[in-house]
Amino acid sequence: MLKDITMGQFFPGDSLVHRLDPRTKLIMVILYIAALFTAKSYVSYLVMAAFLIISVRISTIKFKMLFKGLKPLIIVIAFTAILNLFFTTGEHVIFEVWRIKLTWEGVRTAAFMLVRLVMLIMGTFLLTYTTSPISLTDGLERLLNPLKKIKVPVHELAMMMSIAMRFIPTLVEETDKIMSAQKARGADFETGSIFQRAKALLPVMVPLFISAFRRADELAIAMESRCYHGGEGRTRMNVLRMEKRDWITLLVGVLVLALVIVLNILGL
Amino acid sequence: MSKIIKTENLVYSYQAPEGELPIRVLDGVDIEIESGTFVAVLGHNGSGKSTFAKHLNGILLPEGGTVYIEGMNTQDEKLILEIRRRIGMVFQNPDNQIVSNIVEEDVAFAPENLGYPSDDIRIRVDEALKVVGMYEYRDHAPHLLSGGQKQRIAIAGVLAMAPACVVFDEPTAMLDPKGRADVVNIIHKMRDMGTTVVLITHHMDETIDADRLVVMADGKVIMDGTPAEVFCHVEELRETRLDVPETVDILYELNKEGYDLDLKALSVEECAQEIYNHFN
Questions:
Q1: pLDDT of A4
Q2: What is the C-alpha R_g of chain B?
Q3: What ipTM does the predicted assembly reach?
Q4: Which among A170, A215, A221 has CB closest to B143?
Q5: What CATH number corresponds to the domain at position B11?
Q6: Which positions of chain A have pLDDT values less than 50?
């Protein structure tokens, strides 16, 4: 049952978006988010929506999958929208009950915030759907490489991230096993208040943690046995290479951001 | 033949909780292993065989005595990468040896650490995957493979370094019979390719084909010889809570009934022949 978790899921494919360098995609997401937050008018939102729709089309990822990814975040999105709806000050009051005031400005900000968040999440999901975790951490490591000069342990962080991702399925499987073992001994995870249920998980967490530490120890020995000695002098089998398509994509990204800024200045 | 591994009076103890004496696991082990041979190390739990294995590539450093790998002392920190490149190590749990989410990326881990050029790594990875018969799975995710397949990936990950010797520390303990047979076949294949193999195990049937069998108990080497020679000592082996192959057991039981059979029969054919010869 825990196997159905769709965190950071990756759908292999062969589209242009899949083939882009992970660094390009990471920078594009940053540009995209920057543009989303500078966008203030209907026209600029339309530009952003068009950009997102075209990217998704090229990636051959189905919109249904992107909406699925939104599901667990619905509460957060709704909460933000409602906050904006009632706490935006404005003059065009629609109605007022006790201290709660609903204004046209509120509706507008809430709608914008809703669209902005949904597009933000869909954009970042497009990144994780089209990029394998390993190339994602690779790209991140290479992008942050200059930070090594100021003693940021970039390689170590990237290694930790990729090992964590490698062990997610293993630990999920193990959790399933331990839960079954505890159920067989009469443990009850499904009934009672939320506190009782959290408490019932304790006999799952303790063995899981102990085993995770044991695994970490064994993995460290296995890595050392395979000559791991940090990032120094390490080469890669698959070297990341920026192609023509990467530079063109980045140019498009910069242009979109520029267009949104121009639209803001023109007041459209 | 040259000696690839040489230990001299190797002593090691694990730290015990405060107030107790440290537990001595290795108590004066002297072993020389010839290049290109298949040596099996047999011992019961707690005999010190895994601790011995971890000394061979400098994961553990001796408390007393020395370990030489092709003449290099494992206590010399500058030589440790050279030693680890020569002595590959495969462990019991395949899950805890795999670093990457993609099979070929995992196999590439060791050569990447050694700083080889990309094209060279690609060749090594493809070759290693072909040796273990997992080339078709190169872009799979390891967690979707069976235990035996994962262990084969772990072996490929070691082979990609092109080590002179591979130490297997109970590689089949967590595998099903099919996975076990696959791993044993790869071990035989490696011996045929000229790689020195040290197999640590407590499955005596895996040791039958070895060139040499070393039996450990309580941190000491108690027997050393060809498998046929060692398994003749049925009573001594049973004293250390080890068993003998069924073929030897049958002949041994017959001898107890008053026959006079030669115990050096490890395969079923040899055993049948021995009995046939005797009764003719």
A1: 47
A2: 20
A3: 0.89
A4: A170
A5: 3.40.50.300
A6: 1-6
